[in-house]
Amino acid sequence: MKDKQDQRQLDRRSFLNSMGVCVCGTSLYGLPPFSAYTLNEAMAAAQEGGEKAIPTFCGMCGPSSGCGIYAFVKNGRFIRVAGMKECPTNQGAVCAKGQAAPQWVYSPQRLKTPLRRSGAKGEGKFQEITWNEAISIIADKLKAQKKQYGPESLAMLSPARRSYSDYMQRFLIVHGSPNYGHSGICAMQRAFAFSYTLGGQPMCDYQGSDVIVVWGKQPFFSGPAQSGAKNYLAAKKRGAKIIAIKPSIEPDSGMADIWVPLRPGTDAALALSMLNVIIKENLIDASFVEKYCYGYDKLQEHIQKHTPEWGEKVTGVPARQIQEVARIYATARGAGIDLGNGVEHAPSANDAIRAVAIMMAVTGNLNRAGGGGNRLGGGMGPGGGSGTKSVNLKERYTQEMVNKLVAPEFPKVFQPFMEGTSSAYYSILDSVLTEKPYPVRMVIAPGTQPTVSTRGTKRVIEALKKLDFYVVVDVTRTADMNYADIVLPTETVYESDHPFESMGGSIMARSKVIEPLGPYKSIFEFFLDLGVAMGYGEDFWQGSMTACMNDLLSPLNLTIDDVRKYPLGKSLQPSGGAPGGAPGGPGPGADSGGRGNFESIFQAKSGRLDGAPYLPQGKVAIYNTTFEKEGYKPLPEWREPPESVTGTPDVAMKYPLTLSDYHTSKCYTASWQRNVPYLREVQTYPMLHIHPDTAAARGIKNDDWVIVESPHGWMKVKAELYPGIRPDTVMMLHGWWQGCTELGLEDFPIGDGGANVNNLYSVDPDKAFDPLITAMSSQTLVEVRKA
Ligand code: SF4
Fold first, then answer.
1. Mean of the per-residue pLDDT values for the chain?
2. Using CA atoms, how far apart are residues 694 and 724, in angstroms rounded to an integer?
3. Domain with CATH 3.40.50.740 in the chain
4. Closest Cα to residue 617, out of 293, 201, 194?
5. Which tens digit of pLDDT belongs to each residue from 118-164?
6. Does position 536 have pLDDT exceeding 70, yes or no?
7. Contact status, residue 767 vs residue 642, Cβ threshold 8 Å
8. Which of 293, 399, 423, 758 could bridge across to 289 with cysteines, CB 3.0–4.6 Å?
9. CA-to-CA distance for 128 and 144, rounded, in angstroms?
10. How far is the CA of 95 from the centre of ligand 1 (A)?
11. What is the CATH number that goes with domain 199-380+583-629?
12. Which of 64, 67, 84, 91 for a ligand 1 pocket mutation test, highest count of atoms within 8 Å of Cβ?
């Protein structure tokens, strides 16, 4: 009996074993999962072990969690997770983070109670208060600031789209502030450049493409378990040729047919030189170009200077390899490009994405089965895609609000965009210091840690010190909570019964796994409570989460109680299929032949207040007259990062290596979860990937502590000798600061000398940002030496 119970509990050895398999790219990411059940199997397993099995969703990663799980509870304690075989999102797969959820829930680093600062900023002295006291202190301050400085003096920070993003925007819209702060390095940059070039965002067709280019993306560790890795492996199995474009080898590039090891941040140069080959060798689809593209003649002339030899100089990729991959992509029967977050971290990000989009169009791949054209329009935006009411009150945006943006993420003329109006995350904080065009006075930061999430840590800390009022809302202690005036501890999703989730044509209620372990409420209730305290009760369902969910479900003639009767979700579409053009499903313009209905897609209206279409000519915007009209370059260009071997050779004399960072890993979501022992045992230290030859030249051995220094700052991390990286490049995972109490691991300093890579990057306003989409550079030059 004991043996059986031991099997049920997630023990350390089995966890580590499963992670070992996971590293090879199977088990936890799909084949087979660590443990997966149908509802009946889960109930039987629970009965056998004297447990309860509760169907719900995982909550261990963003932007919004979607993996169905069975959470097992024994004697009132959440003990383990199994995958839900019936869930279309993950089909039973659960990743390492999802498996480790019980340790996150019971972490000694969880915030225990609401706090009010009692010492100086940064000192870390707080007094305990109640939730209601905290809400009323915030509301009083907010009312006073609104009266004195206007509603725009409030900003909220959101690193990426989260399940609660619409609630943030709803609050800001009702309050009257446009300052929703995006990170400037995630997702919206692709959405913007694709929309203004193709009218929508194409989704790579892993099932249909003969050639798949995985570009700046990590399909195994990012996004929900199952879709990325499983699709990749299935494509590989059916013989698709896979080309991986990234500076170092990860599981996907390790299995790829061709690895294109470009220098970090040079994606635009690579795409431009590939276009040069395609055009020079006439590998275009002339009839598609003629019928559906605007400005090809101007591109032909423009692209002459971007030869493969020029591309080799900038990217470090041999000219012959640039030619090879351009030819393979252009001549395939159907080739798709899965463009990831990695391309969004450079001052030329918009041009890189535009050049890739143009490549999709001129080669005709957009118009071929497997080329992604049938999936144009898949993407992101406010909720409501499943037929439920949207939380976001987008219809209330006014020109006056747009004009008040403190640091527009996209130029004001392009606002609001998909998610609404937005200011750039880092630039909001910078405006606190510069007071230009006006100082933001209060920042609410739910589920984000600006000192480790964005560039320019030193200025971020100065801004947090200078803010009138800073509110942290999170589950565990955060890197910057010592600068907060109020800290609010929230429930984990396992302690909450809302909201519901839409997936694969059905709606499923979230189920509470255990009662909250402290005086916690959910992040959704935070916005409802604050709304009521501000006098906005009518727009916040008078503080009732049940009323909120019933209201959102009302277009479907459902209540949340109706939905709860279906533990595996209430089906809305008998034929299945992802609703609303959700990622992975055909977009709204798909036709039955698997190609795009371009007449419809190319007329798509933008989210701007005037509703102007993304593509004024109703064609692919190779030559972009919309950008030109607003004073931006109409054709994609190369723009050097603030420091690079080709752009600043003088700096490279002292700092010869290019540094960049990874944003996904098998264990951690951004800067979260270093406090979870199972995960931390697998990835214990911040490791710098460095080529063995580069290390040997510096007398560095595997596991040595090393100093990494750039012109802007330095950090101390461990070296991992890594043959699968360019010898002139070093890379590490971002987000390191947090210790792990159970393993006796201390926090790292946030500033210089710690493991926070953001200290090392430039935030020069003239060089470090993409001029159109404020993408921030995560490349610099460094030298590495033994500590
Ligand atoms: S990918 Fe992993 S962490 Fe994210 S929802 Fe799925 S199981 Fe949870």
1. 89
2. 12
3. 115-184+383-571
4. 293
5. 999 999 999 999 999 999 999 999 999 999 999 999 999 987 777 88
6. yes
7. yes
8. 293
9. 24
10. 6
11. 3.40.228.10
12. 67
